[in-house]
Design a protein that fits this description.
It is a single chain. Helices cover about 30% and strands about 15% of the residues. The protein is of the alpha/beta class. Strands 2-1-3-4-5-6 form a six-stranded parallel β-sheet. It has a five-stranded parallel β-sheet with strand order 8-7-9-10-11, with helices on both faces. Strand 1, helix 1 and strand 2 form a beta-alpha-beta unit.
């Protein structure tokens, strides 16, 4: 497929990241296309736009108006609404339409130290760990778990998206060293159903313990190496992981391989292209819906504006 990557906004960290990743692609299955008219798909790679939460600027973009049948969106909002068909990091199961959406990974991590964690035989000192803010109710019972070989730390006083460089380095190194020292890493939902921590855990070759009842798993991965725990069963985690400790190394290797196959810098662009290709094949099933046509449903619930206002204050780590 020929892909045209762009953004409707002046600041577009996600677009910059994906353009860089595209240059590293080793598969050659999909190509960048400078001319949107010749592209098979146009992907708007957007970060959360706090000054335009309704994405009006995107929906009125000339390319969206001119090519409604081949425009798609990468959307990493914690509480997204169906702006355009495309790749969504945190779309809930109940809002997931397979003809329009692909659950997807985050394009980059804000923590540069995670990439240095993985080594084949690194020793671990923690059975499981969690470092994060209390951005969702399911995280509070995590802090009450008891196990002699666990590390649990509430970092609600820290916002990874709004901190000074010196603090970012200290906190980033502490987080990465804890991740490296853990066999299992608790990956609860935050404001959104997913979190960057899940994909950092795969990159590190550790076993993710996914705690998010409404999380929709990206379909390119067989997630059986991960542990999934219902939010109401968090208290069972110490006993469950103690019983699975002997499987941690193998599961961690599978997690690392999944990351290498689909989300590493030299494979992620291919995963983007494959995901868009599958949506192009489903295009007939979504033509009845105008861009932004689901907005009224989300506004009526009050969910969109309330949740994403909270995202200004809380990091999803």
């Amino acid at each position: 497929m020929k892909l045209h990557l762009t953004s409707a906004y002046a600041t577009h960290t996600g677009l910059d990241a994906l353009l860089g990743i595209a240059c590293m692609d080793r598969t050659g299955r999909h190509q960048l296309c400078a001319d949107p008219d010749e592209a098979d798909a146009i992907l708007f790679v957007e970060n959360t736009q706090f000054d335009d939460l309704l994405f009006r600027q995107l929906l009125h973009h000339p390319l969206v108006v001119r090519h409604p049948d081949k425009t798609y969106m990468y959307n990493e909002m914690d509480r997204p609404w169906d702006v355009l068909p495309g790749l969504y990091c945190c779309l809930t199961k109940r809002h997931h339409d397979p003809a329009r959406h692909r659950p997807f990974a985050y394009l980059y991590s804000p923590n540069p130290y995670v990439s240095n964690i993985h080594t084949p035989d690194r020793e671990t000192r923690y059975l499981f760990s969690f470092m994060g803010s209390m951005s969702h109710a399911c995280r509070r019972p995590i802090m009450k778990l008891q196990h002699p070989d666990a590390l649990l730390k509430d970092t609600s006083d820290f916002n990874v998206w709004n901190s000074e460089p010196a603090e970012l380095e200290v906190r980033g190194r502490e987080y990465a060293s804890t991740l490296a020292a853990s066999q299992f890493v608790l990956c609860p939902r935050g404001i959104g159903t997913s979190s960057i921590r899940l994909y950092e855990t795969l990159e590190a070759g550790r076993v993710p313990v996914i705690i998010s009842d409404q999380w929709a798993p990206p379909p390119e991965i067989d997630w059986r190496f991960a542990i999934q725990v219902e939010e109401r069963r968090i208290r069972s985690i110490p006993g469950l992981l103690s019983a699975l400790e002997g499987e941690a190394a193998d599961r961690g290797q599978q997690a690392r391989q999944a990351w290498l196959d689909h989300y590493a810098p030299d494979t992620l662009f291919n995963t983007v292209g494959d995901s868009l290709a599958s949506l192009v094949d489903c295009a007939q099933g979504r033509r009845h819906r105008r861009p932004g046509s689901q907005l009224n449903k989300w506004l009526a619930s009050g969910e969109l504006l309330t949740r994403n206002a909270a995202q200004r204050l809380l990091g999803n780590q």
